[in-house]
Specification:
This protein is 53% helix and 18% strand. With 88 residues, it is α+β, with helices and mostly antiparallel strands. The protein has one domain. A two-stranded antiparallel sheet has the order 1-2. The two termini are 30 Å apart. The C terminus is likely disordered.
């Protein structure tokens, strides 16, 4: 989880031009992480020892630990190079 300014700087360093961003909100983030956590536990026996299991558990833990922190913000539009005519 990073601030909008950090994410915009990362996008710019890789050659993208950030046109804007929007806040996801706590409810949206919970709507993603709660089902993911439930599915992950259901798949845990099949994924035992797999790196993806540890990675996703860590991601969920970071989300849970971030409660009370500013809400996540993701780039709404980031483009590489010159915008196409439909983006102008």
């Amino acid at each position: 989880m990073a601030t909008p300014a950090t994410r915009a700087a990362q996008a710019k360093r890789t050659g993208y031009r950030v046109l804007g961003h929007f806040d996801m909100g706590r409810e949206a983030m919970d709507s993603y992480y709660r089902p993911l956590a439930a599915r992950l536990e259901a798949l845990a026996p099949r994924l035992a020892g797999a790196r993806v299991l540890d990675d996703l558990r860590r991601e969920i833990s970071v989300h849970e630990a971030g409660r009370g922190q500013p809400e996540a913000s993701l780039p709404a539009r980031a483009i590489r190079g010159t915008p196409h005519k439909f983006l102008r």
